[in-house]
Amino acid sequence: MAALGAFLALAIYLLLGCQTLAKNDAPCQLSKWNNGYKTFLRRHVPSGMPTSLNQNEWENFIRSKGNCDRPTQSFLSPEELDKVKDVCTNRGGKVYKENLCISKQPFTFVTVRSEQGTCGIRSVRQETKHLILACEVLDNQCLPVHFEGNPGINVLQTNLRSLILFLSLVY
């Protein structure tokens, strides 16, 4: 029985440890996951997205992509892909925390909330917020690999936080 407990503890440690090791602690470091950018594009900038906010169209779209297991999904316009990629550079973004960058300008995107596993759509909303993206180096280019939810933070707030930290270090 003690061996089983030790085995379970080790398994949990390894599973959790591997997850935290897969994330870089700063943006634009060499990626530990080679498919991160392709997965980001497939999940957040897919071709054939509905152009309306019609729940039936979005349900059919999400079903066709096989993404019913994700209860919250955000979609960016393919026409803005270059601007989205710029969030990972000083042209369009700045370091937020860990491996996350925040866009200098707000973006408009669609967020779809559904019942997990059923594809039953609860809401389809157009939102305008600053993007928070995990950015890593793939093919010698810093690219987005994860779309982080933004609880309402903007660049002004991050600049203010940086200024307060600086002043606390100086005085």
Keywords:
single chain; about 170 residues; alpha+beta; P-30 Protein; six-stranded mixed sheet; 6 strands; globular; disordered N terminus
Structural write-up:
- With 171 residues, this protein is an alpha+beta fold.
- It has one domain: P-30 Protein.
- The chain has five helices and six strands, in the order αβααβαββββα.
- A hairpin with a 6-residue loop joins β4 and β5.
- The longest helix is centred in the first third of the chain and has 20 residues.
Short description:
This protein is of the alpha+beta class and 171 residues long. Helices cover 36% and strands 30% of the residues. It has helices at residues 2-21, 36-44, 55-65, 81-86, 155-170; strands spanning 29-30, 72-75, 93-97, 100-114, 121-138, 141-148.
Tell me the radius of gyration. 19 Å
Principal-axis shape equals: globular
Largest sheet: 6 strands, mixed
Supply the number of structural domains.
1
Give me the strand/helix succession. Answer: HEHHEHEEEEH
CATH T-level topology: P-30 Protein
CATH C-level:
Alpha Beta
Low-confidence stretches: 3-21
Distance between the termini: 57 Å
CATH superfamily: Ribonuclease A-like domain
Backbone structural class? alpha+beta
Protein name: Si:dkey-237j11.3
Domain Ribonuclease A-domain: 33-151
Keywords: Signal
Organism: Mastacembelus armatus
